[in-house]
């Protein structure tokens, strides 16, 4: 892909200052790009910084270092009008449909938040747009006068999706949007997202730890470990030929539907604990748990380099 990415992170870091002056490096030197109409899956263990990357790309956090570019422009240097266009064009779907909806607001007012903020429509036109958005996500206009507590988790997530669509965004940052839902409901929400993407040409950053769902949804996949990217590639290539030891360990944990294959395959079990993001190691972040590590790995941090067309890897082992 040679066209200018719609949304891009260039060497982005996000650090948080904790009590006592300690600094937590939640994201440290991440570079990735979202191209128009694609889905980029972002995977990794809980606490690796996936959600922080998503919130930084959506403009909810200002980066500590590096740049976030929207349509080729640094979002921190945008004019007020351009910044408004960026915030309208980049919306989020949050993980917890129970916490992300205001319990004191009706569903209609929740869905219309963006319409009101950006003064898109009022009166009868506003109500018509609310009904239209509810219909888009499989709900009924009668639901507009109800409150979030009257709905199931799957229905609440549909309300959140309708709210994000209200301002006609170009990018949706989906922060583990199905992890809090029953398995029986997850596929419905994922198929809804796919249908909306096809209908409106949306671009998705899909953050998840569900590797099977990421494979189903994503055109490309980026793998994170302790605040850094370790591998990115086209989805089919990454799942067929993972190169980083951490990626291979993650993929070995995906259950197989065939009982015979599931019983005969070898899972890669990682030993040790994830290092602290407050005091990360100087070399490769994965070195202390890597079953194939070299002495160099503990001393020199590997850079994310293109090892094959479209396949990027941060590992000293490749090419030995």
Spatial strand sequence of the major β-sheet: 6-7-8-3-9-10-12-11
Which stretches are low in confidence, meaning pLDDT under 50 for 5 or more residues running?
A: none
Largest sheet: 8 strands, mixed
Number of strands: 12
Question: Helicity level, as a percent range?
Answer: 25-40%
List keywords for this structure.
alpha/beta, 320 residues, eight-stranded mixed beta sheet, 12 strands, four-stranded antiparallel beta sheet, 31% helix
Structure, explained:
By secondary structure, the chain is α/β, with parallel strands linked by helices. The chain has helices spanning 50-57, 80-89, 107-111, 113-117, 123-136, 153-165, 183-200, 211-217, 235-240, 245-252, 259-264; strands at 7-17, 23-34, 39-43, 65-70, 73-74, 90-93, 171-175, 203-207, 220-225, 228-234, 305-308, 311-313. Strands 6-7-8-3-9-10-12-11 form an 8-stranded mixed beta sheet, sandwiched between helices. The longest helix is centred in the middle third of the chain and has 18 residues, at 183-200. The two termini are 29 Å apart.
């Amino acid at each position: 892909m040679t066209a200018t990415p719609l949304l891009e992170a260039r060497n982005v870091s996000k650090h948080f200052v904790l009590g006592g002056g300690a600094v937590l490096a939640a994201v440290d030197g991440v570079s990735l790009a979202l191209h128009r109409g694609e889905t980029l899956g972002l995977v990794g263990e809980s606490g690796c910084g996936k959600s922080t990357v998503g919130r930084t790309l959506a403009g909810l956090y200002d980066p500590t270092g590096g740049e976030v570019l929207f349509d080729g422009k640094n979002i921190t240097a945008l004019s007020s009008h351009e910044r408004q266009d960026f915030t309208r064009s980049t919306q989020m779907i949050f993980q917890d449909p129970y916490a992300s909806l205001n319990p004191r607001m009706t569903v209609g007012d929740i869905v219309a938040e963006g319409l009101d903020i950006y003064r898109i429509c009022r009166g009868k036109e506003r109500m018509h747009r609310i009904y239209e958005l509810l219909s888009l996500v499989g709900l009924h206009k009668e639901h507009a006068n109800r409150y979030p507590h009257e709905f199931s988790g799957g229905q609440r997530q549909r309300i959140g999706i309708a709210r994000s669509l209200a301002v006609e965004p170009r990018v949706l940052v989906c922060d583990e949007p199905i992890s809090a839902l029953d398995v029986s409901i997850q596929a419905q929400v994922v198929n809804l997202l796919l249908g909306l993407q096809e209908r409106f040409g949306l671009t998705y950053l899909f953050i998840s730890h569900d590797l099977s769902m990421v494979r189903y949804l994503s055109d490309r996949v980026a793998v994170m470990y302790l605040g850094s990217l370790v591998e990115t590639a086209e989805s089919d290539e990454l799942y067929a030929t993972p190169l980083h030891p951490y990626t291979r360990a993650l993929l070995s944990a995906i259950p197989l539907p065939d009982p015979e294959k599931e019983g005969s395959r070898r899972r890669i079990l990682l030993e040790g604990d994830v290092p602290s993001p407050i005091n990360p190691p100087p070399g490769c972040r994965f070195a202390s748990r890597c079953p194939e590590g070299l002495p160099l790995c503990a001393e020199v941090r590997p850079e994310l380099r293109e090892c094959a067309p479209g396949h990027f890897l941060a590992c000293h082992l490749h090419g030995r």
